[in-house]
Amino acid sequence: MLVSGGGSALIPYPVDAISLQEKIATTDLLLACGATINEINCVRKHLSRLKGGGLARLAAPADLHTFILSDVLGDDLSAIASGPTVPDPSTYADAIAVFTAKGIWDKVPAPVSSIWNRANWAKLRKRRSRAIPLLKIPQPH
Fold it and tell me: What is the pTM of this model?
């Protein structure tokens, strides 16, 4: 698989609980409040089935080889195209913190905020934290 900068926009597959329109509305809200690209990506990874290592989890147990072309300063593999084949170091709490720090938590579409309510946290964390089997991350050259 080839992953490169801008790839994140090509894989907007949202989690079951939200629609693509709700995910777009959430991203638009983040853009309008001046969120940084890192803040936006943190949130988008947690609203996606593919980003933040999700594609690798879905591909398991198949062998998956990824060629990554970086457009990110420092070559953080989890940031390039939102890291579809790389584990995500951020948490749901980090994503919620983006909204609260920007003062927009009350403007988030209800289905988006509800997936992170306390009743769902345990289930989400368990599903999201599943290891990506046999993941070997080479150092960028």
Answer: 0.79
